[in-house]
Amino acid sequence: MSPQPPPSVTTRPTTIPGRIEEATPEVEPLWQLVLLDDDDHTYDYVIEMLGAVFGYAVSKAFALARIVDTEGRVTLMTASRDACEAQQGQVHAYGPDPRIPRSKGSMSAILEPLA
What we know:
115 residues, alpha+beta, CATH 3.30.1390.10, three-stranded antiparallel β-sheet
């Protein structure tokens, strides 16, 4: 019988006296980063911001801009809370749209737990 490797830090062994059970992996909950629509940013701004922050191609960024414009919101990514918060910070730091004088800041993006 070959020796078993020690459990990784992402698993928690289940112990019951007199019985050995498989380790149960701990699953980190997923979150979504959702971009909210507003009237203070142009399509060009959204496309440029999504390209700069997420590396999205113009075609994908345009498709997401259409969704946020027509539906009022669009999910930009699904990942761990930390990863979503990091990208949210970049969205919020992108700044105002220079094409619209009343644009005073970045677009809003919120975090939501994946249901």
